[in-house]
Structure formats: structure tokens, C-alpha cells
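user: can you give me the structure for this one chain? C-alpha cells are fine.
assistant: on it. calling the predictor now.
[tool input]
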Amino acid sequence: MHSSNAVFSIYIANSILVACYVVMLWVIAIMSPKLRGMRLLAWAYTLALAAILVTAGGYWHGWLAHTLSPELLLICFLLLHYTFLGFVGRKPRWQAPVIILVAGLAGFLYCSVGADHYLLRAELTAALLGTQALLSGFLLLRYAPEDIKAPSRATAIIFLLFGTRSILRCLWVAHYHVLPEQMQGTIFAIGGISAYLILNAFTPLGYMWMETTRLQREMEILSATDSLTGALNRRAFDEAGLVEVERSRRYGLEMSVIAIDVDHFKMLNDEFGHKGGDSALVRVSEVVRSMLRATDVLARVGGDEFVILLPATDQQGAHELAERVRGRIANLNIEMRGKHLPVEASFGVATLRMQRTDATPSDSWEKILEQADAALYRAKEGGRNRVG
């Protein structure tokens, strides 16, 4: 009696939990429509609640309940899978889910109409839900981006454990031809319903954890980058520069900085408008970024001013890079209002070799920036479109 009450209590707790999540998820989905995958998650829990309500009256009573409930759960698991696809950046494919749903529906109908093959239905339900849970777990483990590794792994573990439990249940029924709870007592019934309770409780939390981590990372990127060109802003560039100065001092390495100023930028804006000026800045940043190493850093520090940080680069190497970039920029083909938009730039190169006894990183960083600005000024005074 007590064991039966325990099973019923967990069943009620699971039902209430799912119902509360349905309300909460739909409120969030409506109030925050830009949250990735939130509507899919809300639909998944809505279908899970529908599956519970279908069987609430008599615990798997009637062929309609026997067919609808596992099919609704299968759709729920597929929607959860597609929710996770949005996090890992994988392209959704609809052919396989359609086949799975049709095959599941046909199987559940066969087990429910006519002879009541309840054991076969239990095997089929456990196999389909378990397989889909394992696929979702492996998806999160293999493809999750680095910035959401921790929450994706935690969520993956829950799905892998549930999937493993379901597959083992399927194998048990296939081998012994009896449900585990019928053979081993109510402890298996408690374990079975508890598995759904744990999965239902943690999945939205895992989603929120992944989404919060992703949004936090995006905010960090936005706070450190220029919105137009995608280059670092001045604050983030200074932070990177101080780190590189300290590294150069520690290992006695040279480092270089290239200051870039787009020539006659005000004239471009006057003739082609701000859209033309923005287009020129974007194309310049693309050209520069395409010619840099993975360790180099590009920043936009003013309206038409860029700076490149070149770790472990001597004066000659920096000067040669500046000349190549200058030539590429001068040959840019930008059309605006049916006219060619001419773009040229001047460059200032400065190099610093740090010693352990030198000034502080802050003073040294300001020094190399001042030297690059001075070289840029000489280039502009010398006729522009050149390297100083």
C-alpha cells in the first residue's frame, strides 16, 4: 500500500511539475520571443502534459490512450532534440523525424488495436524514447560550442542516463517477457516514474543554463567589439596590448603596432553619405583581418582609425605587412550610387623590444602607441597613402 502511494505521489509530483513548466515556458516564450528554441521547449512540455492527461484517468486504459500517449511523448523528445540543435549550430533535418513519428504511430496502433500487446508497446516506447534521448545526449556532448560546454555536458548526462535506462528496460522486457515492476516489485515502478521526474525537472534548467551562458558570452563580445566592423574597441585593445607587453618583457620579444587612418574620410562621407563611409570602413576592416595571423589583433579606435597589434614581430615584418595591406586597400573595388568609391589609407609602424628592467607595461604600451601615431602623422604629412 505504502509503495503504491509512493508511486502515485511521484506521478502527481511529475504531473504538477510539467504543468507548472508549461505555464512558465509559454510566459517566457511570449515575453522574450528572441530566446533561441524557447517556443520549441514550450511545445515539448505542452505535449508531455497532454500525454499525462491522456492517461490520467486510468493508467493506460483504452486503445486511443495507448496510441496517443507514447506518440505525444515521442514528439516531445523530438522537439527537445531540435531545441538543442539551435545551441550547437547544426542544421535541422526533417526527413528522419517524420519517418520516426510515422513508424512509431504505426507501431503503437498495432499494439493497441485488436489484441492488446502491452509488452510490445512497452518495448517500442522504451526503444524509441531511449534512442532519441541518447541521440540528444550525444549531440550536446559532441557539437556544443566551447562557451556552453559545462551546461551542455550536464544536460547531456541527464539525457544519456535516461536513454540508457530506457534501452535497458526495453532489453529487460524482450528477455523476460514481463515488465520490470511486475517482476521486481514497486521499487522499479518508483525508479521508472522518477526517471521522468528528473528529466522533466532538469531539462528546462539545462536550457536556461545554456542560454544564459550563451547570452553572457555574446554580451562580453559586444562589450569588447565595434558594432560596425567587428574589430575590438579601444578598451579591449588596450587590455590585449598590456598582456602582450608583459609577455614581450618576460621573454625578451619584439612587438609591433600599426596605426591606420583612412585618407580623406570626411570627403567620402560628404560625397557618398554615411552609408558610403560605413561601407569603406567595413571593407577596410575585412581586408586587414584577412591578412592577419591568428595571434594578431585588430581594433577600431576612432571614426576612421584602426590599430593592429603584432606580437613577436620586428620592424621589418610590420613594415612589410603594412605595405601589403596598403596596396590591397588602394585596390578595393567599392561601388556606391553607380560610382567607384576610392579608398586609401596611411600607416604608422612602431616596434618595441621589452627588457625586464624597462618601464611598467602601461607606460611601455602608451609609448609604442605614441610612436605609431607619430609615424602615421609623418605618413600623412608626406602625401598620404603610404607607410611611415
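assistant: here you go. Strands lie at 254-262, 297-300, 305-311, 335-336, 339-340, 345-353. The mean pLDDT is 86.
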